[in-house]
Amino acid sequence: MxxxxxxxxxxxxxxxxxxxxxxxxxxxxxxxxxxxxxIGAVGDARVPEYIKVIEQLSGVEKAIPILKPYxxxxxxxxxxxxxxxxxxxxxxxxxFVVVAGPCAIEGEEQIMESAYxxxxxxxxxxxGGAFKPRTSPYSFQGMGEEGLKLLRRAGDSVGLPVxxxxxxxxxxxxxxxxxxxxxxxxxxxxxxALLKRVGKSKKPVLLKRGMMTTIEELLxxxxxxxxxxxxxxxxxxRGIRTFETATRNTLDISAxxxxxxxxxxxxxxxxxxxxxxxxxxxxxxxxxLAVGADGIMIEMHPRPEQAVSDGMQSLKPERxxxxxxxxRKIEGLIRPLSEVGR
Length: 342
Ligand code: PEP
Ligand code: MN
Prior knowledge:
This protein folds into two domains: about 1-65, Phospho-2-dehydro-3-deoxyheptonate aldolase, domain 1 (Alpha-Beta Plaits), CATH 3.30.70; about 85-340, TIM Barrel, CATH 3.20.20.70. Helix 6 links the parallel strand 11 (about 205-210) and strand 12 (about 235). It has helices spanning about 10-25, 110-120, 145-160, 170-180, 190-200, 215-225, 255-260, 270-275, 280-290, 315-335, and strands at about 1-5, 25-30, 35-40, 60-65, 85, 90, 95-100, 125, 160-165, 180-185, 205-210, 235, 265-270, 295-300. Helix 5 (about 190-200) crosses helix 6 (about 215-225). By secondary structure, it is of the alpha/beta class. The protein has an eight-stranded parallel β-barrel, surrounded by six helices. A four-stranded antiparallel sheet has the order 2-3-1-4, covered by helices on one side. The chain is elongated, with a radius of gyration of 21 Å. Bound molecules: phosphoenolpyruvate and manganese (II) ion. Phosphoenolpyruvate binds near residues 129, 133, 165, 187 and 208.
């Protein structure tokens, strides 16, 4: 339910409406626009008939039911695009945001070099996994807290915000201590305990679509984070499982405009994990930019042939520089307000 306040509603009327929403067992999510305040009231799906009496409260213009199963994530709840701040970087604004870095943090030299290369090429955010969700328990599992410290130091040394994955609820606090953005990986997209946990964090969350989740399920997962109190959610399409075997996963490029229609949240694309091959990263990134994604996350490594994970899909430095030149050029054509090369 969306409660639209009158244009001239007073602070007191808004406060009383919020109290009333709480008194009937719903959670209020006020959103103060330039013109007026609207309040999302979410809770039990069985909306009691009497909630309609809220229209009788002074200062309330009307109450509109949200028909979609996700509420706070929907365009009905917020018409304008949400812009999320991570350090000095804005995600969801005019700038096409590029996140670049290795799959995993492997050591001090590797992540420091990666940070330097990422910055030199013009990326906005540095990535690197410290807790890795590996298909095999025998594969490298990540450097843990030591890796988080190195990532933070590497980001700070070149002035880039950092993103890294949170694998489970126990590590949420420690990751939030070091990272500017918390990443929820494809395999955890429906780990509801983890979603609720990062929903309590003040840090932005990049939520990856699972290999087997529909767009609606992805939005329901975002709703878990939003309804737990964190309104800074970025969605990320990273390929889904289909019958096709030529690529690691199938990048669902249509998910971008579909999501842009259904939600106000920023939408990013990870072509590296979708394709599993460095050669496809540029064409898929061009596609992401052209269909209106707010940014991309790509894997880059100083020496991909020595990478402990995902070397096949990681760009080596020279390729990464050429890649960034081309992406920023196309960005200048497609998004003229983006201050390319800032
Ligand atoms: C990653 O970005 O490091 C990763 C593991 O990706 P995904 O969760 O999309 O597989
Ligand atoms: Mn990877």
